[in-house]
Amino acid sequence: MTIMMPASDQAVLDRRDAIVADLRAIVPGEGVIASAAEMLPYESDALTAYRQPPMVVVLPETTEQVSRVLKYCFDNGIKVVPRGSGTSLSGGALPLADAVLLGLGKFKRIREIDFDNRVVVTEPGVTNLAISQAVAHAGFYYAPDPSSQIACSIGGNIAENSGGVHCLKYGMTTNNVLGCELVLMSGEVLRIGGKAPEQAGYDLMGIITGSEGLLGVVTEVTVRILRKPETARALMVGFSQVEAAGECVARVIGAGIIPGGMEMMDRPAIHAAEAFVNAGYPLDVEALLIIELDGSSIEVDELIKRVEAIALGCGSTTCRISGSEAERDLFWAGRKAAFPAVGRISPDYICMDGTIPRGALPRALARIRELSEKYGLGVANVFHAGDGNLHPLILYDANKPGEMDKAEAFGADILRCCVELGGVLTGEHGVGIEKRELMPHMFSEADLSQQQRLKCAFDAQGLLNPGKVFPTLHRCAELGRVHVHGGRLPFPDLPRF
Amino acid sequence: MTIMMPASDQAVLDRRDAIVADLRAIVPGEGVIASAAEMLPYESDALTAYRQPPMVVVLPETTEQVSRVLKYCFDNGIKVVPRGSGTSLSGGALPLADAVLLGLGKFKRIREIDFDNRVVVTEPGVTNLAISQAVAHAGFYYAPDPSSQIACSIGGNIAENSGGVHCLKYGMTTNNVLGCELVLMSGEVLRIGGKAPEQAGYDLMGIITGSEGLLGVVTEVTVRILRKPETARALMVGFSQVEAAGECVARVIGAGIIPGGMEMMDRPAIHAAEAFVNAGYPLDVEALLIIELDGSSIEVDELIKRVEAIALGCGSTTCRISGSEAERDLFWAGRKAAFPAVGRISPDYICMDGTIPRGALPRALARIRELSEKYGLGVANVFHAGDGNLHPLILYDANKPGEMDKAEAFGADILRCCVELGGVLTGEHGVGIEKRELMPHMFSEADLSQQQRLKCAFDAQGLLNPGKVFPTLHRCAELGRVHVHGGRLPFPDLPRF
Fold first, then answer.
1. The pLDDT of residue A348
2. Which residue of A has its CA nearest to B186?
3. Can you tell me the distance from the alpha carbon of A233 to that of A231, in angstroms, rounded to the nearest whole number?
4. β-pair partners for A380
5. Helix H segments across A77-127?
6. Best of A158, A391, A450, A474 to disrupt the B interface by mutation (most B CBs within 10 Å)?
């Protein structure tokens, strides 16, 4: 499967030297990178199967510079691809040959820590983890915790509406972000939201969150911080059948218990993780649940007992309860290392990301097993079980002819299955280029047109991150006709590595 | 202060009889109301100071009828004002003389109760309370609980992003709605979201929630239901200084405790409520907090002790803890009846609705007291203290010349103060017509233009609920120019009663 991207604008490419010079006038010093060697690190994001050198990389340091760069590109019809730390798993920050790659890496300062209102105001290039570290001394933290939290930026978290193991209880990025400063493609600077939890007017913060860099460039973020729970303890529960583990998840939630995290791994994932980190995982089970309860000590003690009883009622075969912080960390170590661990047992793998209604978990797992047999490819399942967010890792060998195409077809079938079960193409990794072609499977033409009209309300010329999310780009004027037919842009192939 | 509304379209008024006949062909039987007497109940919503008979009332029963009515109006350039139960406090459902009033009152059926996925799929005319009642037998409920929950419709809750006393812990409407069916002004039907908590594409559900009927008409809703907490107990805590009560709120939240509800009343509100319902409120205090803790019995017992200790540390002078469900209900009875209770001590009152960052509570209260002296009008303060949502009730006598204008000026000053303190013009009652003119105080021209571009992405002709939310309506084509100047529509006066 090759990926189609918008045609390069030859007139822009012909003017490259002049454009680079103009950008240097806006962002002086080392803020403009134009040599092929220095641009290498920007050729892909974490979806490394696709690579493309950008036309030029610009690394502004101030909102004013971002605004001037965008206005310059707006006035001259030049495309722009925004980039945070480049940890996107769906190709959201993949460059275009004729576009400016706008990196926010120099926006690294935390501007304000306001404990009274329990918010942090920060620049978008600050990493997710750095926010928690900056408030840890006072017993606070920032809740969403994607696996990439050491590296991923808070601006990128907003673009992708990132989740993490604790999002079951504490929400996704969209539930933890209160406001931002947004620069539109026109260069206009908007202030959206603020420290107060409710806002007048349309929920612009909600649209920006998860918009994958297609609507504007975030230059400041206000996030909510939470007080660290007094205690957290985890159960590690094994089951001889995957369905029983699914039933346990449903019963815990059904009992009104919202764990801080509730993660499931199947047999291949358990074995891979255990071989990698020696977390003490049982190897004779088909499914393992890690369930973390947090709150006051007395509350956690009681919840542990209730969850243990529920697990037993679902036929759990093993159950260990963490007796110390070190043991709790060990339970999680295997889960957190599951992706690299699977990388050790298979030459290559694709990490899929889809969601299903919790009640459909057993059906989804059965279907994935059927597909695994049909395609003759192994699969290791790791998922945020509590909120129905699946991460099947499809195992393949890129050196065997045809296996990569089979793996991609397998992945697409899993996502179609998620949609058929009433779920969604993506849980937290975004659509990007990876799932772009699957969007019509989930959305009707009317749905997609409405989403694109919304895009037009922010970026009428379609200059910001084109080729991502939408399989077909319509001109905004055509969308005004409400019923849209045709209007496809010519898409040449983009090389894949 | 008179309120300006868009000019009536004489060409539409001249065609009224033909329009009524055309609408009767779409919605047969008693679904079209055109006589002045029968249209009387639709002349205003709960902001009763403003009244306006609509051109015609249409009460469709199916999505197809809604779609056909909207398409007919779209094709013929006829304005439409959607209406749920008409309990809006900001005039969101106020009719226009040349507009179809589209009532959703016949959409009264709950379509599906799905306990496995913990959602209810319902028609928009179902009341907020009816949803909780429909799932109560299984121990579930729908969390947002506006004071009007017996009457207000879930569709109206979406339009206003309604809150309630339990929203501190369980979120506003936007946090509890997962999907909807939306009919655009063009008649196109979109399906937005679904049962899964995360969604691909832009967060359309987020924009629709709180959009005050300007973007589309909701014909089906999927809401999240929660399991009822095992126990709920309340503390009633009195303070001799309002500031001490504010400090107590901050310390409870700062300690990482999120009460199910945390409400504050000041002396005038306490006295009015106690005289009305005999809840046993202390009359010798300046501020009263009602703090409800919910969860498992063991957890609630512990939290009660911690909150009591915090309150004592802040200098509380009285503290009672509910020992039974009946006593807890009694604590709340006074708070829930505060609005009608204040109606008994003053001929007229305006209920304001603004939010501030929690940390600014003492400053906001001091400013409201200053303004009360400046205007010579009493004020009773009732608020959702936990999330900084103020509801000052401004007391006046409409029979005294000039008092109503003074009260409105006082209210506007309070909202300006909220914005200056980093807060927002509205917490949960919407902008509607009431706060429309204050929008530029909160938003820059660029902000308002961006919100209107978003409106244009849904309703390019501006036919849906015009005159609400935005002080100035721009034509969508003008907004395309990005920088907007002028372009005001001619607004004649609307009579006020």
1. 86
2. A482
3. 7
4. A393
5. none
6. A450
